[in-house]
Structures are given as C-alpha cells and as structure tokens.
Write a structure and sequence with these properties.
Number of domains: 1
Helix content: 40-55%
Distance between the termini: 17 Å
Largest sheet: 8 strands, parallel, barrel
Strand order of the largest sheet: 1-2-3-4-5-6-7-8
Order of helices and strands: HEHHEHEHEHEHEHEHEHHH
Strand content: 5-15%
Length: about 300
C-alpha cells in the first residue's frame, strides 16, 4: 500500500477497489493531496465571479474553465454535471468531479436557511463516464446548522455510498450556515463540519479556512480522521498572500490539499495556467512559497507528478 494513498474504505466492493485506488492516484497525482480546481461557482455565485471589474474577459465564457483544467497542473476539475455534458468530451484529458447539487447566493442566510438538494445522481455521473469522460469522483454540498440539514445529510451519505460502490471518490463541501450558526468561520465549528464529512463517508471534505493562526485549522484536520481535509480558496487575493496561506494550511495545519476557483479562473488563460503550476508546486511538490511564486512569475519551472 502506498502510504500517501491510504486504505480502501470498506464500502468499496472488492471488484471496484482497483478503480477507486486509480481514481485517488489520478486526482492526487499519487501524492495523496488533492488540488481541486473548483468551477461550481457558475451556480453558487452566478455570474458575479466571472464578469466585472478585475476579472479577465476570458472568464465570461464557461469554456475558459475547461481550457485552464486541460492546460494547467490541477488534480481534478469540479463543476456541475450539465457543463461536463456540454464541454467534457472536448477535453478528455481532464479528471472530472461531477458536482451533484448547488444553490445560488441570491437568498441570504438571514432570509432562509440554506437548502441544497441533489440535481443528479451518481448513476448520471457514471453515464458521462461511459461516454468517455474521465470521471474520478462526485461532489455534494451540505450545510450543517441549517434547519434542512437532516435531508441534506441523508442525500450526502447515500451519494458517498453509491460513489464508492462504483469506485468513485466522494467529496463533500461542508459549510456551517443558517440562522442557528452565529460564526461560520469559528475554527471549532469548522472542525465539527470536517468531522461530519468523515461521518458521512467522504474521502475529502472541503471546508472554509477560519483564518487567523494555521494551528487553529489543525483541529479540523484531526477531527476528520482518515477523511482528508481541503480548504476552500476564498475570495481573490494577491498571489503571494494566497500561496502563503496555502502553504500554512498544508504544512502547518496538515490539510490534504486545496479547492481553488476564483484565484485561478478570474485571470486570463496564460496567467491562470501559470497559477495552477504555482498552486501545484505547493500542494503536490512541497515547494516553498518563494519558489512557487517564481513558478507563477515564470522564472522557475515546476513539473507535476504524472497521473
């Protein structure tokens, strides 16, 4: 067993174990750390993240996401199943994670608790895999603290089981949110969300980074046990600041990667691709912030491990 890859969960049938391990190796480039390029904001934030001041014109076209994923150094690209159906066959070299639910940001937590139920099933993702798309996993968001959490948890648990039955990875987005949640960035609350992801059966649990000291984020990593914690990238910040935070998340807190969207795709294509190499250098290559920044600036070259 490759220690970086880990054990096969018991709900993965013996016949699907090799597929599961292959998908995990592919998505993490054999390192056990996932660089998830996040494109699910096409629904979550509608067009706010893709058009406007400070955003490259390239980003207005959803195909920009697929171009970055194909040319860049990502581990896997996560987006809604409809976009995968429209563009995925044109980019057959990209490992995909099919996001099975989403909601917009138009209704605020002060108006109503978040409720995001499945649009599609694991079987639908497998249909895309049968058409030739390299689907390595599925994704699903849950909102602990919402009055609707129980129905979301039931769907999430079933999706994790169904994914494992097919040898796919199960990735959960877990965001404490709703009128009962007084501080969704509380490190202790975030740790609870990471532990929830483990209880629901996720291979990776994506949570928000609480900020502050990276040591505070270590509570979430420990709470998740054998479920690997990855941090959401958050809003757009300077490249050096982003890489520094990412380095601390992984090398101080012990996170198993990142899920980055806006800090990549809001850039023009060539710059966005360079950003993926810089992020991969920290995530999969254990490079320093200074060296990763040099990758972004084009004065150093990083070659990611083969899938």
């Amino acid at each position: 067993m490759n220690p970086a890859i880990g054990k096969v969960p018991a709900d993965v049938p013996a016949a699907a174990a090799d597929t599961y391990l292959s998908n995990l190796k592919t998505a993490t480039r054999g390192t056990g750390r996932l660089f998830l390029f996040a494109g699910d904001q096409k629904v979550e934030h509608l067009n706010d993240d893709f058009f406007g001041d400070g955003i490259a014109d390239d980003d207005a076209d959803p195909e920009h996401l697929f171009r970055i994923a194909s040319e860049g150094a990502i581990g896997a690209f996560a987006t809604q199943i409809g976009l995968l159906a429209r563009f995925g066959l044109d980019y057959p070299d990209v490992p995909y994670v099919a996001k099975l639910n989403a909601k917009t940001h138009l209704q605020r937590p002060a108006d109503a608790d978040p409720r995001s139920l499945a649009w599609a099933t694991v079987a639908d993702a497998l249909t895309l895999r049968d058409r030739g798309l390299p689907i390595v996993g599925v994704g699903f968001s849950v909102y602990p603290g919402s009055e609707f959490e129980s129905e979301q948890f039931a769907q999430a648990s079933r999706i994790c089981i169904d994914a494992h039955q097919a040898g796919l990875l199960a990735i959960l987005w877990a965001y404490p949110r709703g009128r009962a949640v007084t501080d969704e960035k509380d490190p202790h609350v975030i740790a609870g969300a990471a532990g929830l992801g483990a209880a629901l059966g996720a291979d990776f649990c994506k949570v928000n980074y609480p900020g502050g000291a990276a040591e505070d984020f270590a509570e979430a990593v420990r709470a998740a046990g054998r479920t690997r914690v990855i941090s959401a990238g958050g809003g757009s910040v300077g490249v050096g600041e982003f890489l520094g935070t990412l380095h601390d998340q992984i090398h101080i807190a012990g996170a198993s990667g990142n899920a980055t969207g806006r800090n990549i795709h809001q850039k023009a294509l060539a710059e966005a691709v360079q950003m993926t190499y810089a992020v991969a250098a920290v995530t999969n290559g254990d490079w320093s912030v200074e060296d990763a920044l040099a990758v972004y600036e084009g004065t150093k070259t990083y070659q990611p491990p083969a899938r």
